[in-house]
Amino acid sequence: MDNAQRRSFPPIFSVFRKQTPSAFRSGSLPHQSTAAVTPTTDTRNVLTESDRREQRLARNRESARQSRRRKKENLENLSAKLGQSNMELEDLRHVIESNLRSQEDCTEDERQALRAYRFARLRCLLFPPHACFWMWLNRRACVWTQQASSSQRISAAKIGETLIQEKQEQESETTGWEAKDGQTLWPLLCFELQLKGEQEEQVKAILSQASEEMTQELEALQKMASAVGTLYKDLCVSSKRVDCTYEAVRGVLTRAQLQVLRRYAVDVPEAT
Hints:
The chain is mainly α and 272 residues long. The chain is 82% helix and 0% strand. Among the domains are: 127-169 and 183-213, no CATH class; 215-248. The chain has helices spanning 3-8, 14-18, 21-25, 38-106, 108-126, 129-151, 156-170, 182-193, 197-213, 215-250, 255-271. It is rod-shaped. The termini are far apart. Mean pLDDT is 71; it is low at 12-20 and 22-43.
């Protein structure tokens, strides 16, 4: 091929060598237009941001819905547990009350014994046993000594010794002598004390003088002793009635109401 033919056919890559680097970066060829490429890319970016926003809002709504559902379930579970706990506490309260009531029934005898002991101590403090004995002896000594002296002229101790010997002859074992009148009581007392004749006369004189001087005092002391005994009996009856009333009221009221009632019962005596 000669030079004229070479000039009429240009090289194949001559077009690409004439293009600038910016044309290759834009992806356009010499025979193509780049006017329709740029608007397509902007629309795709705007739709993507809107979709992301919608998806984010949907996720937030679903998360809030699940959170509310979990809270509702937790509240229902807590309500069920609270009801179960209240039922268990009520059952336990009934069990404790029944146990306390049974214990109170078991300790009824102990309480009565304690009450009797306290009143016995009160009587001892008000009027000791030896004082009761001397009061009882002073009120009867004059009559008994006169009866014993008029029956026989010998010493009362000798009379008591004779009575004891007769008792021993009648029974194999001596269980004591029951003195029902002055003729037997005074001699037996003198024999137990081993009083001599002079001592017996002196004791008679002292008891007679004390009986004459302390007549009013002895009557007052005797009334006081009988009043204490009557008070003890009345208090036992009242205590029994109060226990019955309290048991009846306790079966009606609740535990909180009983606590208020106990506080009121404690405060009222202080207020009055």
